[in-house]
Structure prediction request, 236 residues.
Amino acid sequence: MKYLKILAIALALFLFLRLVSSFVPVLISNKKIRMAFRRIFPVIEMLMWISYIFWASHQMFYHLPVYNLLTGSMIIVITAIFGWYLLRDFISGIILKAENGFEPGQRIISSEASGTIKKSGYRCIEVITSEGEYVKIPYSRLSPLNITRPADAGRWVEHVVKFKISSRYESEKIRKVLENRILEMPWIVPGENFKFTITRDETENYIVVIHIHSLSPEMAIKTEETLQVFVREVFM
Prediction:
């Protein structure tokens, strides 16, 4: 009877959690609250299952002499799993950054995603793919990869690209779209000299001026031609 009770509670908990995860997000109209719920709920679900496991083990083994040893072992195992999950990406990141010196603008190819590094954090890097998608890759999944590094500063070629874009587009959107496209180009050197200036002319159109560093004069010409085509396709 005791074992049937434990199984019944496990089934009821499973069904309850599935119903909550399926229907509550549908009922939440606010997008931010819905996204926050989707992030928090898996943690709540995990904590509830851990609580259930400890309760079930107490119901089944509390009368045995090894109960305290069993409970202590469970705590150690769960702590070790969480510790490894939280620290593995952090430790892998330290090792990989020491070996490769991840910088924005570097190209990487891995089994998870390929593209240009946008940002490197403590536990993952953010990559922009050739389709313009943002992908976060934990460092622990970046073992088999190739990295193309920007050239040394002494070989950089600075040039300025200028566009006229209709003011019906938001200036911040223009900046983000162009920045993403530029960072997808492996010959572009990112850094503090990668600058945007957006002003308005007498016809109220935007004048976009971009200061870029590339790897060679030929790449400077290619960059301008590529961006001219991109601007015509996206903003005209």
Q: What stands out?
A: The beta strands are 107-109, 114-120, 124-128, 134-138, 146-148, 157-165, 188-189, 195-200, 206-214. The domain at 153-235 is CATH 3.30.70.100 (Alpha-Beta Plaits). The chain has a mean pLDDT of 79.
